[in-house]
Amino acid sequence: MKTVTPRLKYKDNILYFEDVELTKIVKKISTPVYVYSKNQIIENFLNYKSALYKRKNLICFAMKANSNYEVLKIIKTLGGGCDVTSGGELFRALNAKINPKKIVYAGVGKTEQEINYAFKNEILMFNIESKDEVEFLNNIAKNKNKKINIAIRINPEVNTHTISHISTGEEGTKFGIPLYEVKDFVRFVLNECKNLNLIGLHYHIGSQICTVTPFVEATKKVCNLINELISIGIKLKYLDIGGGLGIRYKDEEPPTPHKLINELLKYIPQYLTIICEPGRYIVGNAGILITKVLYHKKVKNKNFLIVDTSMTDLIRPAFYGAYHNIIPLKLNSNNFKKFDIVGPVCETSDFLGKNMLISDVVNGEYLVIETTGAYGFVMSSNYNSRLRISEVMVDKDKFYLIRKRESYKNLISGEIF
Ligand code: LLP
Known about the structure:
- By secondary structure, the chain is of the alpha/beta class.
- The chain has two domains: about 10-35 and about 285-410, Beta Barrel (Lyase, Ornithine Decarboxylase, Chain A, domain 1); about 40-285, Alanine racemase (TIM Barrel), CATH 3.20.20.
- It contains twelve helices and 21 strands.
- The strands form three sheets. Strands 4, 14, 15, 16, 17, 18, 19, 20 and 21 form a nine-stranded mixed β-sheet that branches.
- The radius of gyration is 23 Å and the shape is elongated.
């Protein structure tokens, strides 16, 4: 069977991730378990970094994709910053000693408490999404007699051709300031918000985008605007081009960061520092989820494999209809069959894969769900009072636990008795 994950390979019919035989991990840690490849994360980050080498740049990893401390530590060691979207993410980033001057904060609903927290820690900039927000921020700064750095998040209104749930840069979404309002918005900020420093523009058009066209369209639109602003005497320092580059889950052929960035650089003025916010690209293909087959079940012509993971650990199939390749940890049968792979949760939408053609496995054996390093663990929940699962990092022939499985005690730790 074929893998789509670069560092996941069969040797003598057993899967290895980097140089670790996966049976060792399931024996020691048990299942379900997320496993990440340190060297894949590093390679992905460096791919982005080298694509930007001609320009002043900063990579702010979109930590909403994977916010484990160990992952953030890798990003920090490589000189990266973070794109945060809540006070909680900021807390995690600071806890991992990410330099606050490398942190940008986007989100349509930042609370006063979150703004104060970010302000106190002197992050690089707030990416502003509405007029109410900009006024609110200005008042906070005024009361403190200080100035706050901001960038305006623009909605460039382009068609991204991705899953509608994760498209943010189309007309009518809640994100950013519509392009046609931006010039007036800039004037408003400069004239009325004396406690704000406008230092950049930002756009992020969506996620899992597999062609350069929407990125180019958005960049052209925003850079035209930057040139117009220059002509009226407004020179900015940063252009934050967001994240969104797609990865291969099945047979997609997304552009490399080099190809994408080279196209975009044609339009971006030299003097700007470019900020990028890749999330999925950095961690997506660096992660797998290992699960145990509990039972086989046949209903009419349908074959189910019931496994010990579920939508509570990986919600992407249930939520977006997303595809993740699923393969056996050990290849010991040539009996290929179509299975629906489902979890124990009381929802019909609790599936990990439908109509997956795989070689049969006996109960108690393991399956590997691929390309789950991004938006996997971070979207997990305790629904059905299931425990959040453990996470493991592999580094060449070593592996180590980077998050413990929750206990029943954890489940009720916040409740008042
Ligand atoms: N910057 C901003 C402002 C964002 O909202 C996002 C993702 C990113 C950067 C990173 O985008 P990426 O490089 O990862 O595509 N849960 C969904 C994805 C939601 C993406 C939300 N925003 C999924 O599982 O596909």
